[in-house]
Design brief:
Number of helices: 3
Helix content: over 70%
Number of strands: 0
Strand content: under 5%
Shape: elongated
Distance between the termini: 39 Å
Radius of gyration: 18 Å
Largest sheet: none
Structural class: mainly alpha
Length: 102
């Protein structure tokens, strides 16, 4: 997987720290999906809080940048889901083959 970048010019420091945790999780050999979804939920809360604290013009710029980042996250989690489904399919196929020879 190529290097995932979740920060942009207007990313506040608390969100940068959380983004670094998410990137580290995606970079690991085995991804803990429950931890990933907790981090993404926390990310959503931080983004909403930041938007509430910004002026309208800043909100628009920040929201536009975050929309692109969210698209990247959706694509990465979709790829993760496809990989998990393929692994599950391979496991089921392997079980059937083993049962055939028992």
């Amino acid at each position: 997987m190529k290097q995932l970048t979740l920060d942009h010019a207007n990313t506040p420091p608390p969100l940068k720290e959380l983004n670094a945790q998410i990137v580290a999780l995606f970079s690991s050999d085995s991804i803990d999906e429950s931890a990933l979804f907790k981090l993404i939920d926390t990310r959503d809360v931080l983004i909403r809080e930041h938007l509430d604290s910004c002026e309208v013009e800043t909100q628009k710029v920040f929201a536009k940048a975050e929309l692109e980042i969210n698209g990247l996250l959706v694509a990465c989690t979709r790829d993760l889901s496809k990989t998990s489904l393929k692994q599950l399919s391979d496991l089921i196929r392997g079980r059937k083959a083993v049962k055939k020879y028992l």
